[in-house]
Amino acid sequence: MKLGLFTTLFPDMELIDLLALTRELGIEALELSSKPDRGLRHFHPRELLENESALICFQDTLKRNNMIISQLNCSCNPVSPIPGEEQKSREDFEIAFRLAEKLNIRTVCSFSGCPGGGPGEKTPNWITCAWPPQYQNMLKWQWEEKLIPFWTWASKRGADFGVNQLAIEMHPGFCVYNPDTLLRLRQAVGSVIGANLDPSHLIWQGISIPDAICALKGAIWHVHAKDTFINQRNVRINGVLDTRHYSRAEERSWTFRTVGYGMSRDTWKEIISFLILSGYDGVISIEHEDMFLSKPDGLSKAATFLKEILPIGNPDGIWWA
To answer: What SS3 state is found at 9?
Structure first.
């Protein structure tokens, strides 16, 4: 496995400075946002598509610094009912696929998306209950008329550019938010669909990450390293569904933390072990959304924590073989 970084953490950092920082921390892979509107100073999707010399320069810089790209991230709501957003998402995916071909990347990540509850609605509707009975009809419409058609298109269009892994980040608020819904979409669309496994969005739902890894064996394309702290007292009072602003951490049932500040070290070691057992040997990409730690401090702590538990090099084999 390799340690990586989702680089939107440092949008204003030039590439050469970012590479110096990552090299110092032992990071070997970058996860890059392919959305032009992210405004990253170290990565310019449109320029790399349109300017061959800029593309060559970018690739040479990565090669000189022994850096790889783990995936392109095109996070959005691709089936949004808000006027214009679905078309904008298709345009963003088109850029991601074309850029992936240029950079020889096979994995593109996004959220599954969440449509409205039916034709004509103009706001997303995340359905979490089986009752009242109208919800079942709304879910059926969302999946059959919006979700499956979009990802069927994305799988075929991605294949035109050599993208054979669409990594869906399971995220509450979207139609795919746990292993069951991820596997449902995979069954409907095909094996191109897999998970961008981000534990932070599953922990507060009460999901065991090692058990989720077992359920998703063979369908994990990429992994985010982000943690969640559960305030058990608030959970006992109000449960895990929480719409309070993230800044109201003392009142919330859960809060995003950097790796090691939510789940225990032993749990993270178990997660790594089960990833190995599942056959995953890719990148563990640090994503920092910890309001209690600065960006440099949170990244440094996460990198130090993970380097101590990630396997390095190839195994020596079984001693009794």
So the answer is: helix
Neighbours of 307 (CB within 10 A): 13
- Cβ neighbour number for residue 269 with a 10 Å cutoff: 13
- For 128, 226, 259, 295, the CA distances from 301, given in Å and listed in that order, are 35, 12, 8, 10
- Tell me which residue of 67, 85, 65, 68 sits closest to 76, measured CA to CA: 85
In whole angstroms, what is the distance from residue 107 CA to residue 173 CA?
Answer: 23
Question: Do the beta carbons of residue 80 and residue 86 sit within 8 Å?
Answer: yes
Q: How many whole angstroms separate alpha carbon 93 and alpha carbon 160?
A: 12
Rg of the chain, C-alpha, whole Å: 20
Please give the torsion angle defined by the CA atoms of residues 276, 282, 286 and 287, in that order, rounded to the nearest 10 degrees.
-110
Split at pLDDT 50, 70, 90, the class of 105 is: very high
254-257 and 227-230 strand pairing: antiparallel
Is the separation of the CB atoms in 3 and 307 below 8 Å?
yes
Contacts of 210 (CB under 8 A, 6+ apart): 267, 270, 271, 273, 274
Of 49, 47, 41, 1, nearest to 19 by C-alpha is 41
Q: Kindly report, residue by residue over 239-291, the tens digit of the pLDDT.
A: 999 999 999 999 999 999 999 999 999 999 999 999 999 999 999 999 999 99
Handedness of CA 283, 289, 290, 294 (dihedral sign): positive
